[in-house]
Amino acid sequence: MNEPRDFNALFEQLGKATNKALNAYENLIYEIGTGFDVEQNERICHLASKGFDTSDAKIIVKIESDMTVELEELERFSELLN
User: Fold this and answer.
1) 40 and 19 in contact (C-beta within 8 Å)?
2) Which string of DSSP letters, residue by residue, matches the chain?
3) Which of 4, 10, 53, 73 has the most Cβ atoms closer than 10 angstroms to its Cβ?
4) Whole-prediction pTM value?
5) Mean pLDDT for the chain overall
């Protein structure tokens, strides 16, 4: 009789984990915002998945794409290199 409860608890945990992952993904998409094309957004998501802050990932993509980068962004980027 313990198996059905364990099975239900497993599905409940799986549901919570799925919701948490979806919320995190939605937040990431919201943070990315506009101004980047699909490939650039994919690159930002990839960098964020590797542990980069979303803001830092955007700066990296701007530099890689020869986009205009603000002085503050360059200063922040130089901190990443240290």
Assistant:
1) no
2) -HHHHHHHHHHHHHHHHHHHHHHHHHHHHHHH-SSS-HHHHHHHHHHHHTT--HHHHHHHHHHHTT----HHHHHHHHHHH-
3) 73
4) 0.58
5) 84
